[in-house]
Amino acid sequence: MKPLLTIAVLCLALSVSAQQKKLFSWTAQAGFNLSNASLHTDYLLGKKESKPGFQVGVRADYHLSTSFSLQSGLSVTTKGVKHRGGEMWIGGTNAPTTYYAITTNQVYLQVPLKVAYQIPLSSQTKLILNAGPYVAYGIAGNDTQRETTRPVTVRGDEKFTASTFKQERRRRGGYSLQRLDYGVTGGLGATYQRIVLSAGYDLGLPDIGESYGNAPESPQPRYEYKNRNLFITVGYRL
Protein backbone atom coordinates (compact mmCIF):
# COMPACT_ATOMS: atom_id res chain seq x y z
CA MET A 1 0.00 0.00 0.00
CA LYS A 2 2.95 2.37 0.66
CA PRO A 3 3.94 2.65 -3.06
CA LEU A 4 0.40 3.77 -3.89
CA LEU A 5 0.45 6.45 -1.18
CA THR A 6 3.86 7.70 -2.26
CA ILE A 7 2.81 8.07 -5.90
CA ALA A 8 -0.47 9.72 -4.89
CA VAL A 9 1.39 12.32 -2.77
CA LEU A 10 3.78 13.05 -5.65
CA CYS A 11 0.85 13.48 -8.05
CA LEU A 12 -0.84 15.90 -5.64
CA ALA A 13 2.32 17.95 -5.24
CA LEU A 14 2.74 18.15 -9.00
CA SER A 15 -0.87 19.18 -9.46
CA VAL A 16 -0.62 22.12 -7.02
CA SER A 17 2.50 23.44 -8.75
CA ALA A 18 1.35 22.79 -12.29
CA GLN A 19 -2.12 24.25 -11.93
CA GLN A 20 -0.54 27.64 -11.35
CA LYS A 21 1.21 27.31 -14.71
CA LYS A 22 -1.86 25.77 -16.43
CA LEU A 23 0.19 22.72 -17.38
CA PHE A 24 -1.95 20.23 -15.49
CA SER A 25 -5.29 18.64 -16.56
CA TRP A 26 -7.72 16.05 -15.17
CA THR A 27 -9.72 13.42 -17.05
CA ALA A 28 -12.54 11.35 -15.53
CA GLN A 29 -12.72 7.98 -17.27
CA ALA A 30 -14.44 4.60 -17.16
CA GLY A 31 -14.30 1.54 -19.33
CA PHE A 32 -14.36 -2.18 -20.06
CA ASN A 33 -11.73 -4.75 -19.07
CA LEU A 34 -11.06 -8.17 -20.54
CA SER A 35 -8.65 -9.83 -18.13
CA ASN A 36 -6.79 -13.11 -18.06
CA ALA A 37 -3.71 -14.56 -16.39
CA SER A 38 -0.44 -16.27 -17.19
CA LEU A 39 -1.13 -19.31 -15.05
CA HIS A 40 0.84 -22.47 -14.26
CA THR A 41 -0.55 -24.83 -11.66
CA ASP A 42 -0.55 -28.42 -10.47
CA TYR A 43 -4.26 -28.16 -9.69
CA LEU A 44 -6.91 -29.43 -12.08
CA LEU A 45 -8.69 -26.23 -13.07
CA GLY A 46 -10.00 -26.91 -16.58
CA LYS A 47 -9.88 -24.68 -19.66
CA LYS A 48 -8.82 -21.08 -19.05
CA GLU A 49 -11.00 -18.20 -20.32
CA SER A 50 -10.90 -14.39 -20.20
CA LYS A 51 -13.11 -12.58 -17.69
CA PRO A 52 -14.96 -9.32 -18.46
CA GLY A 53 -14.76 -6.49 -15.96
CA PHE A 54 -14.60 -2.72 -15.58
CA GLN A 55 -12.50 0.19 -14.43
CA VAL A 56 -13.31 3.72 -13.28
CA GLY A 57 -11.03 6.50 -12.13
CA VAL A 58 -9.34 9.84 -12.69
CA ARG A 59 -6.30 10.50 -14.86
CA ALA A 60 -3.89 13.41 -14.39
CA ASP A 61 -1.75 14.83 -17.21
CA TYR A 62 1.32 16.97 -16.56
CA HIS A 63 2.21 18.62 -19.86
CA LEU A 64 5.97 18.78 -20.32
CA SER A 65 5.66 20.30 -23.79
CA THR A 66 3.21 20.46 -26.68
CA SER A 67 4.08 16.84 -27.57
CA PHE A 68 5.09 15.11 -24.32
CA SER A 69 3.31 14.67 -21.00
CA LEU A 70 3.37 12.52 -17.86
CA GLN A 71 0.17 10.60 -17.13
CA SER A 72 -0.84 9.21 -13.74
CA GLY A 73 -3.95 8.93 -11.61
CA LEU A 74 -5.95 6.48 -9.57
CA SER A 75 -8.47 3.89 -10.72
CA VAL A 76 -10.53 1.05 -9.35
CA THR A 77 -10.06 -1.84 -11.75
CA THR A 78 -11.13 -5.47 -11.84
CA LYS A 79 -9.00 -8.37 -13.04
CA GLY A 80 -9.20 -12.15 -12.92
CA VAL A 81 -9.75 -15.27 -14.96
CA LYS A 82 -12.29 -18.04 -15.56
CA HIS A 83 -11.91 -21.83 -15.80
CA ARG A 84 -14.38 -24.40 -17.08
CA GLY A 85 -14.14 -28.16 -17.06
CA GLY A 86 -15.74 -31.45 -16.25
CA GLU A 87 -14.93 -34.68 -14.42
CA MET A 88 -16.53 -38.09 -14.93
CA TRP A 89 -17.10 -40.11 -11.80
CA ILE A 90 -15.29 -43.43 -11.50
CA GLY A 91 -17.35 -46.56 -12.05
CA GLY A 92 -19.61 -47.87 -14.82
CA THR A 93 -20.17 -46.83 -18.39
CA ASN A 94 -22.90 -44.35 -17.50
CA ALA A 95 -21.08 -42.71 -14.59
CA PRO A 96 -22.23 -39.21 -13.58
CA THR A 97 -20.26 -36.17 -14.73
CA THR A 98 -19.66 -33.01 -12.70
CA TYR A 99 -19.20 -29.81 -14.68
CA TYR A 100 -17.55 -26.87 -12.94
CA ALA A 101 -16.96 -23.16 -13.57
CA ILE A 102 -14.35 -21.31 -11.47
CA THR A 103 -14.19 -17.51 -11.51
CA THR A 104 -11.30 -15.62 -9.89
CA ASN A 105 -12.34 -12.03 -9.17
CA GLN A 106 -9.77 -9.37 -8.20
CA VAL A 107 -10.44 -5.69 -7.42
CA TYR A 108 -7.47 -3.31 -7.32
CA LEU A 109 -6.59 0.28 -6.64
CA GLN A 110 -4.15 1.00 -9.47
CA VAL A 111 -1.75 3.88 -10.10
CA PRO A 112 0.16 4.13 -13.40
CA LEU A 113 2.98 6.49 -14.33
CA LYS A 114 3.24 6.79 -18.11
CA VAL A 115 5.04 8.93 -20.64
CA ALA A 116 2.66 10.07 -23.38
CA TYR A 117 3.42 11.40 -26.85
CA GLN A 118 0.79 13.43 -28.69
CA ILE A 119 0.48 13.58 -32.48
CA PRO A 120 -1.83 16.37 -33.75
CA LEU A 121 -4.23 15.20 -36.45
CA SER A 122 -6.20 18.44 -36.62
CA SER A 123 -6.78 21.56 -34.54
CA GLN A 124 -9.09 19.60 -32.17
CA THR A 125 -7.97 15.99 -32.60
CA LYS A 126 -4.82 14.29 -31.31
CA LEU A 127 -3.45 10.75 -31.36
CA ILE A 128 -1.76 9.71 -28.10
CA LEU A 129 0.78 6.93 -27.49
CA ASN A 130 1.72 6.09 -23.90
CA ALA A 131 3.67 3.55 -21.87
CA GLY A 132 5.10 3.12 -18.40
CA PRO A 133 4.94 1.17 -15.12
CA TYR A 134 2.00 0.66 -12.81
CA VAL A 135 1.50 -0.48 -9.23
CA ALA A 136 -1.73 -1.96 -7.87
CA TYR A 137 -3.04 -3.14 -4.51
CA GLY A 138 -5.82 -5.70 -4.11
CA ILE A 139 -8.69 -4.38 -2.00
CA ALA A 140 -11.33 -7.07 -2.61
CA GLY A 141 -11.96 -10.31 -4.46
CA ASN A 142 -13.32 -13.82 -4.30
CA ASP A 143 -13.00 -17.19 -5.97
CA THR A 144 -16.35 -18.70 -6.87
CA GLN A 145 -16.84 -22.27 -8.05
CA ARG A 146 -20.16 -23.59 -9.31
CA GLU A 147 -20.68 -27.31 -9.88
CA THR A 148 -23.45 -29.04 -11.80
CA THR A 149 -23.72 -32.83 -11.81
CA ARG A 150 -25.60 -34.82 -14.43
CA PRO A 151 -27.81 -36.68 -13.93
CA VAL A 152 -29.18 -34.31 -11.29
CA THR A 153 -30.57 -37.22 -9.26
CA VAL A 154 -27.00 -38.03 -8.14
CA ARG A 155 -26.17 -34.65 -6.60
CA GLY A 156 -27.67 -31.17 -6.71
CA ASP A 157 -25.93 -28.00 -7.90
CA GLU A 158 -23.33 -26.62 -5.49
CA LYS A 159 -21.49 -23.32 -5.02
CA PHE A 160 -18.23 -22.70 -3.15
CA THR A 161 -16.70 -19.27 -2.37
CA ALA A 162 -13.37 -18.21 -0.86
CA SER A 163 -11.48 -14.93 -0.56
CA THR A 164 -9.02 -14.30 -3.40
CA PHE A 165 -6.36 -12.69 -1.19
CA LYS A 166 -6.60 -14.96 1.86
CA GLN A 167 -5.28 -18.46 2.45
CA GLU A 168 -8.59 -20.30 2.52
CA ARG A 169 -9.19 -23.82 1.33
CA ARG A 170 -10.69 -23.94 -2.13
CA ARG A 171 -12.75 -26.75 -3.56
CA ARG A 172 -9.73 -27.76 -5.65
CA GLY A 173 -6.77 -27.12 -3.35
CA GLY A 174 -5.17 -24.42 -1.25
CA TYR A 175 -4.04 -21.30 -3.08
CA SER A 176 -4.42 -17.52 -2.94
CA LEU A 177 -3.02 -14.33 -4.48
CA GLN A 178 -0.77 -11.65 -3.02
CA ARG A 179 -2.36 -8.20 -2.83
CA LEU A 180 0.53 -6.17 -4.27
CA ASP A 181 0.98 -6.27 -8.03
CA TYR A 182 3.03 -4.21 -10.47
CA GLY A 183 3.95 -4.28 -14.11
CA VAL A 184 4.03 -2.30 -17.34
CA THR A 185 1.10 -0.72 -19.14
CA GLY A 186 0.75 0.98 -22.47
CA GLY A 187 -1.62 1.80 -25.25
CA LEU A 188 -2.93 4.41 -27.62
CA GLY A 189 -5.78 6.87 -27.61
CA ALA A 190 -7.37 9.81 -29.33
CA THR A 191 -8.79 13.09 -28.09
CA TYR A 192 -11.46 15.22 -29.70
CA GLN A 193 -12.13 18.46 -27.88
CA ARG A 194 -12.82 17.16 -24.32
CA ILE A 195 -13.59 13.53 -25.23
CA VAL A 196 -10.80 10.97 -24.71
CA LEU A 197 -10.88 7.42 -26.11
CA SER A 198 -8.17 4.99 -24.99
CA ALA A 199 -7.18 1.34 -25.39
CA GLY A 200 -4.32 -0.43 -23.69
CA TYR A 201 -2.86 -3.48 -22.00
CA ASP A 202 -1.59 -4.21 -18.47
CA LEU A 203 1.19 -6.79 -18.21
CA GLY A 204 1.75 -7.99 -14.65
CA LEU A 205 5.38 -8.89 -13.93
CA PRO A 206 5.52 -10.64 -10.52
CA ASP A 207 4.23 -14.09 -9.73
CA ILE A 208 1.52 -13.26 -7.17
CA GLY A 209 0.30 -16.84 -6.72
CA GLU A 210 0.65 -18.63 -3.38
CA SER A 211 -0.12 -22.26 -2.64
CA TYR A 212 -0.10 -24.39 0.48
CA GLY A 213 -0.65 -28.02 1.34
CA ASN A 214 -2.81 -29.68 3.97
CA ALA A 215 0.00 -29.54 6.52
CA PRO A 216 3.28 -27.58 6.89
CA GLU A 217 5.34 -30.67 6.06
CA SER A 218 3.31 -31.53 2.96
CA PRO A 219 4.71 -30.67 -0.51
CA GLN A 220 3.57 -27.32 -1.88
CA PRO A 221 1.82 -27.64 -5.24
CA ARG A 222 2.74 -25.12 -7.91
CA TYR A 223 0.47 -22.10 -8.41
CA GLU A 224 2.06 -19.34 -10.52
CA TYR A 225 -0.15 -16.40 -11.45
CA LYS A 226 0.57 -13.18 -13.39
CA ASN A 227 -2.09 -10.62 -14.28
CA ARG A 228 -3.00 -9.77 -17.87
CA ASN A 229 -5.60 -7.14 -18.78
CA LEU A 230 -6.87 -5.57 -22.01
CA PHE A 231 -8.94 -2.41 -21.55
CA ILE A 232 -10.92 0.24 -23.41
CA THR A 233 -11.94 3.50 -21.72
CA VAL A 234 -13.92 6.63 -22.48
CA GLY A 235 -13.02 9.83 -20.67
CA TYR A 236 -14.01 13.47 -20.33
CA ARG A 237 -11.34 16.09 -19.76
CA LEU A 238 -12.37 18.33 -16.87
The tally of structural domains comes to: 1
Can you count the helices?
1
Helices and strands, in order, run as HEEEEEEEEEEEEE
Query: What strand line-up does the widest sheet have?
Result: 1-3-4-5-6-10-11-13
Please render the helix and strand layout as text.
Layout: H1 2-21, E1 24-41, E2 47-49, E3 51-63, E4 68-88, E5 97-120, E6 125-150, E7 158-163, E8 169-170, E9 173-177, E10 180-192, E11 195-204, E12 209-211, E13 223-237
Antiparallel strand pairs: 1-3, 1-13, 2-4, 3-4, 4-5, 5-6, 6-7, 6-10, 8-9, 9-12, 10-11, 11-13
Structure description:
This protein has 238 residues and is mainly beta. It has one domain (2-237). Helices cover 8% and strands 67% of the residues. The chain is built from 1 helix and 13 strands, in the order H-E-E-E-E-E-E-E-E-E-E-E-E-E. The chain has one helix at residues 2-21, and strands spanning 24-41, 47-49, 51-63, 68-88, 97-120, 125-150, 158-163, 169-170, 173-177, 180-192, 195-204, 209-211, 223-237. An 8-stranded antiparallel barrel has the order 1-3-4-5-6-10-11-13. Strands 8-9-12 form a 3-stranded antiparallel β-sheet, with no helix packed on it. A hairpin with a 4-residue loop joins strand 3 (51-63) and strand 4 (68-88). It is elongated. It starts with a helix and ends with a strand. The mean pLDDT is 86.
